[in-house]
């Protein structure tokens, strides 16, 4: 990753052409009975390092409790589309105001194997130095992960869920484990960052 400073506009100009449009992403086949929209918040520090914002879900939640994920959730009746879902959920979960997010494109949708969601990710550029306000009901903690550190922490590892062990793509940073649909979303993003010359 280059350490040269990059502006939000420059980041958008480099990455947006590598991303899918919302319509193109929605047209891709994906398993899942229930649709969800998630926001992949990305920012460049003043030193030029790229970081991604993720949440650790509350241990009290019925689905994916305690897992690292992107802010997002199920479509509400009032959401005009999945982009609106992602922005609304990010506002509710981490206090990220929709007007402060520059949505520049989408990633390929991915399923959650155990819970039957079709997750539609949208990449949003934000400014560094945000003051997060976490939802006490849904979010245990908020993390800003350096993209370089996430890439360095990639590996195929054995994970156990509900007593069943399997080997899958994972990322580990500071003993924080990312796996499942979130890891697949990261893999897609990182491939596009590489194509854009940003990693």
Describe it for me?
The chain is globular, with a radius of gyration of 16 Å. Strand 10 (164-173) and strand 11 form a beta hairpin. The protein has a single domain (8-146, 179-195), classed as Nucleoside Triphosphate Pyrophosphohydrolase, CATH 3.90.79. The model has no long low-confidence stretch (mean pLDDT 91). Strands 1, 2, 3, 4, 5, 6, 7 and 8 form an eight-stranded mixed β-sheet that branches. A three-stranded antiparallel β-sheet has the order 9-10-11. It has helices spanning 8-15, 22-27, 82-94, 147-152, 180-195, and strands spanning 34-44, 50-57, 68-69, 72-74, 102-106, 110-111, 117-125, 139-146, 154-161, 164-173, 176-178. By secondary structure, the protein is an alpha+beta fold. It is built from five helices and eleven strands, in the order H-H-E-E-E-E-H-E-E-E-E-H-E-E-E-H. The longest helix is centred in the last third of the chain and has 16 residues, at 180-195.
Short description:
With 199 residues, the protein is an alpha+beta fold. It contains five helices and eleven strands. The chain has one domain: Nucleoside Triphosphate Pyrophosphohydrolase (Alpha-Beta Complex), CATH 3.90.79.10.
Q: Which helices and strands, and how do they pair?
A:
Blueprint: H1 8-15, H2 22-27, E1 34-44, E2 50-57, E3 68-69, E4 72-74, H3 82-94, E5 102-106, E6 110-111, E7 117-125, E8 139-146, H4 147-152, E9 154-161, E10 164-173, E11 176-178, H5 180-195
Parallel strand pairs: 1-7
Antiparallel strand pairs: 1-2, 1-4, 2-3, 2-8, 5-7, 6-7, 9-10, 10-11
